[in-house]
Amino acid sequence: MFLFSSHEPSLLTKTAYLFPGQGAQSPGMGRQLFESSSAAARVFTRADEILGYSLSEICFQGPAERLDATEHSQPALLVCSVAALAAIRENETLPFGEADSCAGLSLGEYTAMVHAGALSFEDGLRVVRARGEAMQAAADAQPGGMVSILGLDDDRVAELCEAARQPGEVLQVANLLCPGNIAISGHKASCQRAIELAPRFHAMKAIPLAVAGAFHTSIMQSAEERLAAVLEPVEIRGPSLPVISNVDAQVHNDPDAIRRNLIRQVVSPVLWATSMTKLIESGHEHFVEVGHGRVLRGLMRRINRGKEVFGFPE
Questions:
Q1: What is the pLDDT of residue 132?
Q2: pTM, rounded to two decimals
Q3: S-S: 79 plus which of 47, 111, 223, 250, CB 3.0-4.6 Å?
């Protein structure tokens, strides 16, 4: 059973739903939703039909190596979040009411677009599968990775990247997550050097992330091209509520602009901290992380501890 605070929302405040991105996955994800909610179970069943394989089995049982593969983790995270939304509607357990806005971290932006009606669930899932396959292929062609750097500001992280990067290599800021938590991305050797050099730059920690490649860098250019071809014929509608773009931390209503930004996102840094600040400045007081994991709750507490942050499911 899923429980929320009985707090009544103020008419003067807003709620944002946040959807997790790659790296939040773990074996067992979604099982509680599947067993507790018939509406959520139908989402998993429909996803298995669309994909032609048992994504639900990979989510519920793993193994981790299979779930962590980009072509599986990206659809899995989208499906778990959409299943959570279905369970919320079925049980009429809406934390602080319906979302006034939403945002998703990287892959999670597609989930946000599905929630806002810009993409159908079927199209969103098919595009995300193709996105994951394209990113995996780009990663296989040029081995890379991502590292979370804790305790340094933006400029210092950029200096660390410059020190660790050798000629011909890519290493750059990829995710601006929250103050003191910035993910860098690039060729595998440069990532390893950054981990080794991080103590010299007085970083608190340098943590390799559970992703398959150098996402949000030019190494993903071939994936960007493949994704553009996949998205070109897909119907994108104007969203029914504001969705913050990862690329520029802005709201876009034009379907063509949304399409361009979803394509650009693969090779562009994710402006998550800026996006959350924009939501806060526009009156959002309540934030609900919808889907698997607790990553986005932790980031919001680093961005602004004064906001109320919940998760569904807990």
A1: 95
A2: 0.93
A3: 47
Place of tokens 């969103």: 124
What residue ranges of the chain have pLDDT lower than 70?
1-12, 93-96
Q: Are strands 101-104 and 144-150 parallel, antiparallel or unpaired?
A: unpaired
Does the CA dihedral 234-238-242-247 come out positive or negative? Answer: positive
Phi and psi for 167 in degrees, rounded to 5?
-50, 135
Q: What is the pLDDT of residues 268-293, one digit of tens each?
A: 999 999 999 999 999 999 999 999 99
- Element counts in the chain: helices (H) and strands (E): 13, 8
- Measured between its terminal Cα atoms, the distance across the chain in Å is 10
**All residues at 6 or more sequence positions from 61 whose CB lies less than 8 Å from its CB, including other chains:** 27, 28
Name the residues annotated as catalytic: 106, 216
Alpha carbon distance 79, 73 (integer Å):
10
Distance CA 210, CA 77 (A): 14
CB 131, CB 92: distance < 8 Å: no
Residue 301 pLDDT? 94
Question: 246 with 271: CB under 8 angstroms?
Answer: yes
Q: Are 297 and 311 in contact (CB under 8 A)?
A: yes
Q: Which residues, at least 6 apart from 305, have a Cβ–Cβ distance to it below 8 Å?
A: none
**Residue indicated by tokens 């990287």:** 106
* Helical axes 188-197 vs 154-164, angle rounded to 10°: 120
Instruction: Name the residue among 126, 122, 119, 87 with its Cα closest to residue 102.
Output: 119
